[in-house]
Design goal:
By secondary structure, this protein is mainly α. It is about 40% helix and about 5% strand. It has helices spanning about 5-10, 45-55, 65-85, and strands at about 30-35, 40-45. Strand 1 (about 30-35) and strand 2 (about 40-45) form a beta hairpin. The chain starts with a helix and ends in a 16-residue tail after the last helix.
């Protein structure tokens, strides 16, 4: 068996604990219209957020390739946050927001 096959198999193992995301919206999943022309949608897909909150299954299931992409994205995010913190631009990361008006 090749080393990459072993890594691929490991990446696709189901997690030991099954969890699901809460049916809530996150600031990072917001979508809006562009400031430049007011018609171009930017940000996340509102339809995808609706289906996720309504409990529909994902249509694009995870793959080995997506696991590599997610891993690279996590490394890049950590590196960038460290640099922003070092420069004094970012004080905290991954903060949770709660709507207390409900």
């Amino acid at each position: 068996m090749k080393v990459w096959d072993i890594v691929d198999e490991y990446l696709m193992r189901p997690p030991p604990l099954k969890t699901s995301r809460l049916p809530t919206f996150y600031p990072s999943s917001a979508g809006c219209l562009s400031d430049e022309d007011g018609t171009t949608p930017v940000g996340a897909c509102l339809r995808a957020n609706y289906y996720r909150c309504a409990g529909y299954d994902k249509s694009d299931q995870d793959s080995v390739w997506s696991q590599y992409v997610f891993g690279g994205g996590n490394i890049w995010e950590s590196w960038l946050q460290d640099k922003l913190k070092g420069a004094g631009v970012l004080l905290a990361s991954n903060m949770k927001f709660v709507d207390v008006e409900r």
